Amino acid sequence: MILRAPAKINLGLDVLRKREDGYHEVKMVMQTVAMFDTVEVTERKEGGITLETNRSFLPTNENNLAYKAAALLMNEFNVTAGLHIRLQKFIPVAAGLAGGSSDAAAVLIGVNRLFGLGLTQKELMERGRKIGADVPYCILGGTALAEGIGEILTPLPAIPDCSILLAKPSFSVSTREIYQALRANELTDHPDIDGMTAAIRAGDLDGIVRRCDNVLERVTAPRFPVIGELEREMLSFGAFASIMSGSGPTVFGIFPDQESALACKAALIGRPGMGRVFATVPMEGRRF
């Protein structure tokens, strides 16, 4: 069974506070985009889980979220058959695009189908929470409001048609380090997430892009000036808005059409220190 694991961006990301248990309470608008890893799950006669990937630096044991997702379900339901996972990575790693969480979500869906476990989408999302905060959203897909530590999800209507350009510099960023450096309880300038969700429900693209903001940029962008440079470059090519996704360093721009997005892509590809530049579109919710 072969499944696609799409990337996500944060149209808006706010951190409300750091809780006493150490977790951060967030309020985010998440959006799936058409950029995919491929996850193939195959039943094996021999018991146990094996995993292979096209990225040699990734773990192939329980330290990989895809492996952990398979083990979670197979242990719970006492699946005695074995499983082989073939993970073809295309989404950049440690880029603010939830690639690892999306891979885990795809494995949960695949194992559920392959072994006929009969779990609903809601039940899979509940189990995904044990693997990572973004995994339930990656099972849901589409446009959604995420609250709590990211696990409280409210589906939203699809955003109006637009083109999206992703630009990932050649370096990676640690999500944990960025959150640790964020003085969440001292923030006074917050994104207007309520206004954005209202604009999404109204189908108002202008209202959406005017509210694109990410509080984690307050930490990441000063450390890596290229983030601001990429945003300014995208705006100069006609992007309605350009911000960082997640903890970075990927920057995305929302463009009115594919032509302007591709023109910006051509200008960014040859830039020193640039990793990946990818033109895409927003996706509606996962077909479960």
CATH architecture of the largest domain: 2-Layer Sandwich
Mean pLDDT: 95
Helix content: 25-40%
Total count of domains: 2
CATH fold group of the largest domain: Ribosomal Protein S5, domain 2
Binned strand content: 25-35%
Uncertain stretches of 5 or more adjacent residues: none
Give the biggest sheet. 7 strands, mixed
Shape: globular
Which sequence of SSEs, written as H and E, runs from N to C? EEEHEHHHEEEHHHEHHEEHE
**Number of discrete helical segments:** 10
Oligomer: single chain
Name of the CATH class of the largest domain: Alpha Beta
User: How many beta-strand runs?
Assistant: 11
Cα-based radius of gyration, to the nearest Å:
19 Å
Q: What separation lies between the terminal Cα atoms?
A: 14 Å
Q: Structural class of the secondary structure composition?
A: alpha+beta
Task: Walk me through the structure.
- The chain is built from 10 helices and 11 strands.
- With 288 residues, the protein is α+β, with helices and mostly antiparallel strands.
- It has 2 domains: 154 residues, Ribosomal Protein S5, domain 2, CATH 3.30.230.10; 125 residues, GHMP kinase, C-terminal domain (Alpha-Beta Plaits, 2-Layer Sandwich).
- The strands form 2 sheets. Strands 1, 2, 3, 4, 5, 6 and 8 form a 7-stranded mixed beta sheet that branches. Strands 9-10-7-11 form a 4-stranded antiparallel beta sheet, with helices on one face.
- Strand 1 and strand 2 form a beta hairpin.
